[in-house]
Design goal:
The protein is α+β, with helices and mostly antiparallel strands. The chain is built from four helices and twelve strands, in the order H-H-E-E-E-E-E-E-E-E-E-E-H-E-H-E. The protein has a seven-stranded antiparallel beta sheet, covered by helices on one side. Strands 7-6-9-4-12 form a five-stranded antiparallel beta sheet, with no helix packed on it.
């Protein structure tokens, strides 16, 4: 019995030493320890918080859209490798032009207001609390048919769309220079691997 104990005790005494060597990055450190050090801390954002941006106008003398859109979560905001989330309000009569996201599913959650959704070959009214699920490569468009802003949160399963959003906009408070038709076309061609506009 003493022989068995003498073999067991040294192993227990060595365990804390092995763990401290792994945690310090010495040879033998596990992938789990290394990835934990690079793990994003997460975000807690209120309704108006995030990367606030304003779309660039299509012609001189026109302002960008009156309300900014907000990129809330992506690789630059929170460090997500996969998810993208944004928030925006569409003014009465304003619409999101028909398009498809080729590589990502999307969910739109209606926070406030009402509108008309065009999803594939269907159309339906959507109100506050409504959810629209858009599978990848499905045509989507949305129009505010109400008298108050249509507030939506949108979530993508894969990154990509936030990049074209940034290229067609500026940070809130910066001068919103005109985006020419040629520049807009270049941006859309550059990002056609993930987003295709059906009205071209």
């Amino acid at each position: 019995m003493l022989i068995g104990m003498s073999r067991w005790i040294p192993a227990v005494l060595l365990l804390p030493v092995a763990l401290s060597l792994s945690a310090s990055g010495a040879p033998g450190a596990t992938d789990e320890v290394a990835s934990a050090a690079n793990q994003p801390a997460g975000l807690i954002l209120q309704i108006g918080e995030g990367e606030r941006r304003v779309r660039r106008p299509k012609a001189a003398g026109l302002a960008g859209l009156p309300d900014p859109f907000i990129i809330k979560v992506d690789k630059l905001n929170g460090g997500s490798k996969d998810l993208v989330m944004g928030y925006e309000e569409l003014a009465p009569g304003q619409s999101i032009r028909p398009h498809r996201h080729l590589t990502a599913d999307e969910i739109i959650f209606v926070h406030a207001g009402s509108g008309l959704v065009f999803l594939g070959d269907r159309e339906a009214q959507v109100n506050a609390g409504g959810t629209v699920y858009i599978p990848a490569n499905t045509r989507i468009s949305l129009r505010n048919t109400g008298n108050v802003p249509l507030a939506i949160a949108y979530i993508f399963s894969k990154p990509g769309f936030e990049d074209i959003q940034r290229e067609n906009s500026v940070l809130e408070g910066q001068p919103a220079t005109v985006i020419t038709p040629e520049e807009r076309a270049r941006n859309e061609a550059k990002h056609k691997w993930h987003t295709s506009y059906d009205d071209q």
